[in-house]
Amino acid sequence: MQRVCFLLKVREDRIDEYRERHAAVWPEMLEALSATGWHNYSLFLRDDGLLVGYLETEDFAAAQAAMEATDVNARWQADMAPFFESLDGARPDEAMKPLTEVFHLS
């Protein structure tokens, strides 16, 4: 199982709404994530907007590609894009660049 961690930055003026949206993620989005191999997926948000994402998957590139092929993901990414800083024209899911794991305690 591959462990993936990534960072994004939520705009400080949108943090409360971002939290609200993730307290009620669309059921079809949850189903799509599970069906495409995203497991143990968590998001952690600091008060200044730093977002830390963590997930486990057999193959991150394959899981991303499978999500990209879903209609619900396109709608979710379009809906979420205004919440983020520094996407440089990318969708939020395209800006999720995995960090290098330097230690893991089994």
TrEMBL record:
Coiled-coil stretches noted in the UniProt entry, renumbered to this chain: none
MF (Gene Ontology): racemase and epimerase activity, acting on carbohydrates and derivatives
Cited Gene3D superfamilies: 3.30.70.100
Organism domain of life: Bacteria
GO biological process, one term: rhamnose catabolic process
SUPFAM superfamilies in the record: Dimeric alpha+beta barrel
Protein name (record): L-rhamnose mutarotase
Taxonomic source organism: Streptomyces sporangiiformans
